[in-house]
Amino acid sequence: MTVSSSELDKNHKNAIMQTLKFTVYTNPVREYSFDNTYFVDEKCLVIGSGQDSQIGISDASIDVRHAVILKKNHQYYLADLDTTQGTRLGADKLQPKQVYLLSNESLVQVGNVIIEVTITTTKTTIVSPSTTPTQVINSTSQTKSGFRLDAINLRKSSRPLFGTTLINNISLSILPREFVVIAGVSGGGKSTLMDALNGQRRARGKVLVNGSNLYTNFSAFKDKVGYVPQDDIVHPELSVVEALSYAARLRLPSQSPAERKQRVQEVLEQLQLTQRQNVAIGRLSGGQRKRVSIGVELISNPRLFFLDEATSGLDPGTELQIMELLRSLANAGSTVVLITHATKNVEIADMVIFLAKGGRLAYFGPSKLALQYFKVQDFDAIYDKVERQFTPQEWEKNFVLSGYYKKFISDRLETIPQNNSPSAEKPDFNQQLTVLCQRNLNILFKNRVSLALIILGAPILGSLNFALWKSDLFSTKTGMQDKQLRCCLSQ
């Protein structure tokens, strides 16, 4: 956010002791610390590649004097010095020579280099009532609630011995409420990685959900994990509301009919399908059918939500709508993981996993920084570059040695929560069987062709039998004397 000069001059009542720590994610990672006494007499802190820079970074993407940090009224501000490759604060690109408020845990990008800013205080500033909300320190450091997903040394091959490597020793952490996209070249193991993360096809290594082993406690997490496959598996004969109602009866057996009905209406509104709720699924557009598939999983309000190619085959406008829907689900509390080849709207996601061939991790980090990491102009170009420039082993090694690996993998893995054993709720088998039978009967009666074949099939076949077969066909005395029958039996 841009801050005007008048806002910089607002008075604060009490002084506080502050320390600024800058973690520069180069190879090797470097750290710089400055206390607030450094900024006396309106002194600025320079970031650049020049020898007089207080934070010196030797990188071709960084100008000699790239950016400055200044202090006014106990607040810190960042400004870009009209550089070639620019400066970003979070996802926002800074306008040259304009000051932007710098808060605790800000992520700054100068050229191609990431800098994490940590501001610690020993006293609380008493801010005047006229101060705007954007000037509150630590406004971004809020604890997120939800489900965290950690993968530790995941490995999988097509066969136990001499098989093709599908996942090559991948470790990563997905934080609560993050929207993560899995992308990669053909043969990169995208579906294998997703199925390992959600427990559908287990791999060697560990998958932890809030510190608890997913594989050994799968039954306890089963109702909290949603999975939408690439192909829609909803029944086209049912209406939208019928499909969601049956899903609610199967997945929310402990709730009352009124509560389930309310949940169905909530999902319809969330998916913007209220006006189409009585339409048969088979008559919906491709994007609407995909929304119904998502809705079936949303009924139980999953905390971990996995989708395989949910945007495949959709037009650009519908694809954007699905991506925005998944973004809203993550904002509402779900941790969302999506495999996609559609790259136009990848920046809507928080993080990107990019896989090279053989299930090797070529990148894991913010989607908005992926272009800078691979040094390309658009996301589609990453595929060609990963295929041609280096081997999969080199891409993996380069990432491990980068500051991105320490920031977004190593540091995250150090904060895995302690193991909490979840409790599992056993489903009522008889109740689920009853619901499934009712649903299948409903589908059968809606499919008139299938129903007609079942009702008329037996009489028609029986009539043909009487018309074509001889009356003594199965007679023990004359039936076996029939030459045609003996010929048939001998074949």
- β-sheet strand percentage: 15-25%
Number of self-contained structural domains: 2
- How many β strands by DSSP? 21
Q: Cα distance, first to last residue?
A: 85 Å
Q: Provide the CATH superfamily of the largest domain.
A: P-loop containing nucleotide triphosphate hydrolases
Residue share in helix: 25-40%
Total of DSSP H or I helical runs spanning 4+ residues: 14
Average pLDDT level? 80
What do you see in this structure?
The protein contains 14 helices and 21 strands. By secondary structure, it is an alpha+beta fold. It folds into two domains: 121 residues, Tumour Suppressor Smad4, CATH 2.60.200; 265 residues, P-loop containing nucleotide triphosphate hydrolases (Rossmann fold). It has a six-stranded antiparallel sheet with strand order 2-1-11-10-7-8, with no helix packed on it. Helix 4 packs across helix 5 and helix 4 runs parallel beside helix 6. The longest helix is centred in the C-terminal third of the chain and has 21 residues.
SSE blueprint and pairings:
Layout: H1 5-8, E1 18-24, E2 30-35, E3 45-48, E4 55-56, E5 67-72, E6 75-80, E7 87-89, E8 92-93, E9 99-102, E10 106-110, E11 113-121, E12 149-157, E13 165-174, E14 179-184, H2 190-198, E15 204-209, E16 212-213, H3 218-221, E17 225-228, H4 240-251, H5 257-270, H6 286-298, E18 304-308, H7 316-332, E19 335-339, E20 351-356, E21 360-366, H8 370-374, H9 380-388, H10 392-401, H11 403-413, H12 429-446, H13 448-468, H14 483-490
Parallel strand pairs: 3-4, 14-19, 14-20, 17-18, 18-19
Antiparallel strand pairs: 1-2, 1-11, 3-5, 5-6, 6-9, 7-8, 7-10, 10-11, 12-13, 12-15, 15-16, 20-21
Helix pairs in contact: 4-5, 4-6
